[in-house]
């Protein structure tokens, strides 16, 4: 596996592999089995695999965890090598953003809900870096985790609306044995919080079960919230159900419903979700 830091080196590599299908996995590093699932799928489905590690300042708000976001490039390199990746692109910030053009991308209505409410500008920053990476790499397929369901919905919508020649591949959420969704931010949990954090998924499961049985969405939401409140010391940012992937609250034509939650712990804000198929329920 080759590690490159500059756009020039990346492009030289891509030029010498013209005509091959490219699988691309964008990440912020501190890789775990969740990322590995994306890398493995990309490896299976493409001639070459490019992954990026870039803690993108554009998607962090002023009071968020940009400066303390966990990093471990040695471990990441080891894991990416084991996954059979061809190129790891690890650009410094001034390589990605050498100057400000003053031209911005707005994620629009989809970014006003769920995480967008407490993270204004976050999804604009995600689209900024993704647009640049897609143009630089020109992947055949790009891989995103369902763990970040709103991000996935926004990227799928963006790519379709603006005719990016890339196929977006969804990858299911990878969990710890006790159900906690794997996340780079789990290292910020205290021992007590780590034990409590399993209740996000349990709360979501309760919501989806109540919805399946009663089709009463407000009862499903309130019971899920009550469970999380009673079983964690965290503060619920939201627990909501929206049609997926259009993120509307009208479920009439929905094929899937997203049950999503975000909970603030002392040093980490955790997110999780369950997507249920409406048909056949
Ligand atoms: P991040 O490094 O947090 O930006 O994540 C990079 C990619 O990995 C995103 O597409 C995430 O949705 C995905 N990802 C992160 N955690 C998981 C997980 N537990 N299961 C599946 N995909 C994940």
Features:
Pantoate--beta-alanine Ligase, Chain: A,domain 2; alpha/beta; 2 domains; 10 helices; 281 residues; three-stranded antiparallel sheet; 38% helix
Write a brief structural summary.
The chain is an alpha/beta fold and 281 residues long. The chain has ten helices and nine strands. The chain has two domains: 2-171, HUPs (Rossmann fold, 3-Layer(aba) Sandwich); 184-274, Pantoate-beta-alanine ligase, C-terminal domain (Pantoate--beta-alanine Ligase, Chain: A,domain 2, 2-Layer Sandwich), CATH 3.30.1300.
Question: What is the count of distinct domains?
Answer: 2
| Beta-strand content estimate | 15-25%
Average the pLDDT over all residues and give the rounded result: 97
Helical percentage: 25-40%
Query: In the CATH scheme, what's the topology name of the largest domain?
Result: Rossmann fold
SS elements, strand count: 9
Account of the protein in words:
The chain is built from 10 helices and 9 strands. It is globular. A 6-stranded parallel beta sheet has the order 1-4-3-2-5-6, sandwiched between helices. A 3-stranded antiparallel beta sheet has the order 7-8-9, covered by helices on one side. It has helices spanning 7-15, 33-45, 73-82, 93-96, 115-118, 122-137, 149-161, 191-196, 198-214, 217-231; strands at residues 2-4, 22-27, 48-53, 87-89, 141-145, 167-171, 235-244, 256-264, 269-277. The protein is of the alpha/beta class. It folds into 2 domains: 2-171, 3-Layer(aba) Sandwich (Rossmann fold); 184-274, Pantoate-beta-alanine ligase, C-terminal domain (Pantoate--beta-alanine Ligase, Chain: A,domain 2, 2-Layer Sandwich). The longest helix has 17 residues, at 198-214. Helix content is 38%, strand content 20%. Helix 3 (73-82) links the parallel strand 3 (48-53) and strand 4. The model has no long low-confidence stretch (mean pLDDT 97). The chain binds adenosine monophosphate (AMP). The site of adenosine monophosphate has 17 residues, from helix 2 and strand 5.
């Amino acid at each position: 596996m080759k590690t490159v830091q500059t756009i020039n080196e990346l492009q030289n590599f891509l030029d010498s592999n013209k005509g091959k299908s490219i699988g691309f996995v964008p990440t912020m590093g501190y890789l775990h089995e969740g990322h590995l699932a994306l890398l493995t799928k990309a490896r299976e489905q493409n001639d070459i695999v490019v992954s990026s590690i870039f803690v993108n300042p554009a998607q962090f708000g002023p009071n968020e965890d940009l400066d303390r976001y966990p990093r471990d490039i040695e471990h990441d390199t080891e894991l990416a090598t084991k996954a059979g990746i061809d190129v790891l692109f690890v650009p410094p910030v001034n390589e990605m953003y050498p100057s400000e053009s003053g031209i911005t991308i707005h994620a629009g209505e989809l970014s006003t809900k769920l995480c967008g409410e407490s993270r204004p500008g976050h999804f604009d920053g995600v689209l900024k870096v993704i647009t640049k990476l897609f143009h630089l790499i020109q992947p055949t397929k790009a891989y995103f985790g369902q763990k970040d369901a709103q991000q996935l919905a926004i990227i799928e919508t963006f790519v379709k609306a603006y005719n990016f020649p890339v196929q977006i591949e969804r990858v299911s959420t990878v969990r710890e044995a006790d159900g906690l969704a794997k996340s780079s931010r789990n290292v910020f949990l205290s021992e007590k919080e780590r034990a409590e954090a399993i209740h996000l998924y349990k709360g979501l499961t309760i919501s989806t079960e109540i919805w399946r049985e009663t089709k009463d969405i407000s009862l499903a939401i309130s019971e899920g919230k009550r469970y999380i409140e009673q079983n964690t010391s965290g503060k619920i940012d939201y627990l909501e159900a929206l049609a997926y992937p259009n993120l509307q609250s009208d479920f009439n034509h929905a094929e899937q419903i997203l049950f999503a939650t975000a909970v603030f712990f002392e040093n980490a804000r955790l997110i999780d979700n369950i997507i249920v198929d409406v048909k056949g329920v």
